[in-house]
Amino acid sequence: MDTTLPTxxxxxxxxxxxxxxxxxxxxxxxxxxxxxxxxxxxxxxxxAGRTDTCSADRIIxxxxxxxxxxxxxxxxxxxxxxxSAAPYLQEKLxxxxxxxxxxxxxxxxxxxxxxxxxxxxxxxxxxxxxFRDADSFHIGQMRADVMHTPGHxxxxxxxxxxxxxxxxxxxxxxxxxTARCDFPGGSAHDLYNxxxxxxxxxxxxxxxxxxxxxxxxxxxxxxxxxVGAQKAANVHVGGGAGEDxxxxxxxxxxxxxxxxKLIVPSLQINMRAGHMPEADDSGTVMLKLPINKL
Length: 294
Fold this sequence. Notes:
With 294 residues, the chain is an alpha/beta fold. The protein has helices spanning 54-65, 86-93, 103-113, 188-199, 227-233, 243-254, 263-270; strands spanning 11-17, 22-28, 34-38, 43-45, 50-52, 69-74, 96-100, 129-131, 136-139, 142-148, 157-161, 164-166, 206-208, 224-226. It has a six-stranded mixed beta sheet, covered by helices on one side.
């Protein structure tokens, strides 16, 4: 990938979900009305088993009010902490749903965890586009480049769109660090190498993170930083931290973390591109709760 700073600077609007600390983005071609939506959220009341579309409706209202044309609904990976609203957004706004080609690895892994039958396709066919490393596509006249950045999960992607990089859960704000790597298929070694690829982009590249949890001492949520700031100050990889030290730090920290509250519904739904499992004969959608599997 060309590491000179592109001249295109997309318009980026962020939508922060307080319940899951997730940041979704509308990314617009500055010279037109075409846009992409990245990492949307379907609200979910875990105790009641009820979904809601308030978070997605905020995005729809914005896109509609600004007369934008949705061409892509993108996932940086199969999220374990929130449900994707991709099918709902596609129904209301159009666009193609895209994710990394390694989704097939994730589907195979969690298809086994959740004891899915043969009717669950593990070929990524639930998505409209499967992206591989170095693929590119367009949002209007604006080119987007794909970087495969595994580590948090095997299928994680970074979307480099003009002077902006959308890194999902690979990197957080510099004062918070990096993503966990202890889910099935995760690897702290892979994450370190993926981060080095991201940090090879020009220092002025804007980085947009997938979550923020407000590091100790910071009063406001934040989600935009730069490659230069990450290289200088990221508490896990900044200042030239080496791979061995990073892996030790990451694996030690991961061993102390609880599982995300929504991991069970999120994985079952998100590996289906945000679609629910098939309803039973009564029309009721059921999710599975595997015991001692995660």
